[in-house]
Write a structure and sequence with these properties.
The complex is a heterodimer of chains A (223) and B (291). Chain A is mainly alpha-helical and 223 residues long. Helix content of chain A is 73%, strand content 0%. In chain A, helix 9 runs antiparallel to helix 10. The termini of chain A are far apart. The termini of chain B are far apart. Chain B has 291 residues and is mainly β. Helices cover 6% and strands 58% of the residues of chain B. The longest helix of chain B is centred in the N-terminal third of the chain and has 13 residues. In chain B, a hairpin with a 3-residue loop joins strand 4 and strand 5. The chains are: A mainly alpha (223), B mainly beta (291). The interface between A and B is large, with 37 and 40 residues.
């Protein structure tokens, strides 16, 4: 079997829904193809992740406090000129992004895969907000990321007077670049909502933006 | 004659900050594996390893510097340039000789930082000054905002980060994490066991070996990623870009990942596929070349 033929069957294979003959042929292929084996492993991880997801997705105020506290503490110089090293400060934001990013991915995968779909039942959303892609689960997940970004943007604005014009320019240009990427990926997701890789990419773009903001708000004063 | 005297006085006054600089020449005991912390605002800090169980501090203090405060004991020494609230002349150049295996931590604002020949832990921070290191410390961490980072030889564990400064590593081994926003990341003569490179718009260039079961992650939004590997490399490559290009010299061509988007993907393995190479960009071009 070719890789593209196997990958179409991986969902059912992972579920044990393939007939014995088909499963045996996939087995043979996987034994000699690290790429497809990795794809299967990734699929199983996502299924496990989706199975572990809570039935109810907490609203932003439940996910956010750790990050908010971290932002509030960011300007304080804990160690050296840098605010306790930006990497340490990223941990909380990264946790939110991972959690919410996983929702985006699992959601998108769930639109293809019934096992994931059941883990992300429509009743999961506590917020009756209009979904960016027609599904409240996706909208809630995306709203978490946007909330994180907006709070960091406010923190960045408060710190601008201590940043050099050059650094501000670099940060602003980068934020704009990522915004454009998010917009383009979002448009692509409207066209191709069943593509989990696009959801992954969208979560990655938000993660990059939030990391950049967290880093920028933790920079030492230049002026 | 009177005109000459006035002119001489003006010249002398203009040069006042230069001759007002004070020289430093201090010596303190430090255990061979002691810790040294230095902070300087403007000028330079140069740290050199030597075999003595002492710290020698030489250099010049800026005219407005209040004092060079040296505190601590044989296990931990702190050296700090103390400045008044609104200084004009702070340019302070310090040269430190410290025990080779001692740990050093330098905090600088617009001062350059140079570290040579240390085997202990090295932790350097500068806002706008460049940072250079040579020798092989046990651990190396460098962070800047706009200062360029140049590492002649990496440590077993190296973390490098900048906003707009470039990052360059000449001889890279062990584990290396490098991240920047707009600054370029360039690694030459790499023989890393694992590496992670991340930029927003800066280009990433890696030239080196892909080792055994090593893991190599490259991620950029708009920056280009160029990976130069030896011919006959043994690795699994997973490459993806949203709207950039993928130019591959060592395997198959990339394919469109979706009929709805310009996404391209390329996954292939070479040799026994032991190592893992992951490259991702949004719009940056990706190139895989052989050395």
């Amino acid at each position: 079997m070719r890789c593209d033929e196997v990958r179409v069957l991986l969902d059912d294979y992972a579920d044990g829904a393939l007939a014995a003959g088909g499963a045996a042929r996939v087995d043979d292929h996987l034994a000699g193809c690290p790429g497809c084996a990795a794809e299967l492993e990734g699929l199983r991880r996502l299924l496990a992740l989706a199975a572990d997801l809570p039935r109810e997705i907490a609203p932003s105020r439940d996910l956010w406090p750790t990050v908010a506290a971290d932002i509030a503490g960011a300007p304080k110089v804990v160690h050296g000129w840098f605010s306790g090293s930006w990497r340490r400060g990223l941990a909380a934001a990264a946790a939110v992004v991972v959690a919410v990013g996983s929702l985006l991915i699992a959601y998108s995968l769930g639109r293809q895969h019934s096992g994931v779909r059941s883990a992300l039942a429509p009743t999961a959303s506590p917020l009756a907000v209009p979904a960016s892609l027609g599904d409240p689960t996706f909208a809630v997940a995306e709203a978490e990321l946007i909330d994180a970004r907006d709070q960091l943007l406010a923190a960045l604005d408060a710190r601008r007077s201590s940043m050099s014009p050059d650094t501000q320019q670099v940060v602003d240009d980068s934020l704009q670049l990522i915004d454009e990427a998010i917009a383009r990926i979002s448009v692509a997701l409207v066209d191709d909502p069943l593509n989990p890789k696009l959801a992954n990419r969208l979560a990655g773009a938000y993660r990059t933006q939030i990391e950049l903001l967290q880093r920028a708000t933790a920079l030492p004063a230049e002026i | 004659m009177k005109k000459f005297a006035v002119l001489a006085a003006v010249v002398l006054l203009a040069a006042a900050p230069a001759w007002a600089q004070r020289t430093v020449n201090e010596m303190r005991p430090l255990s061979p594996t002691g810790d040294v912390t230095v902070s300087n605002i403007e000028g330079s800090v140069r740290v050199i390893g030597w075999s003595n169980a002492q710290v020698e501090i030489t250099g010049t203090l800026g005219a407005d510097v209040e004092e060079l405060e040296i505190t601590g004991d044989e296990s931990e020494l702190r050296i700090e340039v103390k400045a008044p609230k609104h200084p004009e002349w702070l340019e302070t150049d310090l040269v430190l000789r410290i025990p080779v295996a001692a740990s050093i931590e330098v905090e600088a604002v617009s001062a350059t930082v140079e570290v040579e020949g240390l085997t202990g832990s090295v932790d350097l921070e500068s806002v706008s000054g460049w940072v250079k290191t040579s020798g092989r410390p046990s651990e190396l961490s460098v962070e800047t905002v706009s200062g360029d980072i140049t590492v002649a030889e990496s440590a077993p564990r190296t973390d490098l980060a900048s906003v707009s400064g470039s990052i360059k590593v000449d001889l890279a081994t062990g584990r290396l994490d490098a991240e920047s926003v707009s600054g370029a990341i360039r690694v030459e003569n790499g023989s890393l066991e694992s590496a992670s490179f991340e930029t927003v718009s800066g280009d990433i260039s890696y030239a080196g070996d892909i080792v055994g079961r090593g893991s190599y992650d490259f991620e950029s939004m708009s920056g280009g990623v160029t990976v130069l590997v030896p011919s006959g490399v043994s690795a699994q490559f997973d490459i993806t870009t949203f709207s950039g290009s993928i130019d591959n010299d060592i395997g198959p061509e990339a394919e469109r990942a979706s009929k709805y988007t310009p996404e391209k993907e390329l996954s292939f393995s070479t040799g026994s596929g032991g190592a893992s190479v992951s490259i991702e960009s949004f719009s940056g071009s990706i190139k895989i070349r052989t050395r």
